[in-house]
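note to self: dont lose this again. the chain is below, predicted strucutre after it. 89 aa total, dont forget to put it in the shared folder this time
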Amino acid sequence: MGIEHGLFCVGCCWGVMLALFALGVMSVTWMVVIGALIFAEKVLPAGEWFARVVAVVLVAAGIWIAVSPSTFPGLHLPSGGQPSMHMGS
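---
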């Protein structure tokens, strides 16, 4: 039964697990932020509404970064000229 439930969990949540792993490798701070958002979506009574708001904000941030990365707050250009997120970690 445990294997069955474990496989179901990996099957339905592999994208979240992959994103959190990648974020953890790059920035523990961002991993904690995204993990807290996911937690809030799961436990808040208005979790579905919260998830939609977060999705809209993330899509808007992605478009903003794609269009004009130099104007996005917290996005710094290292010496190589490529944008990178820096949150003091």
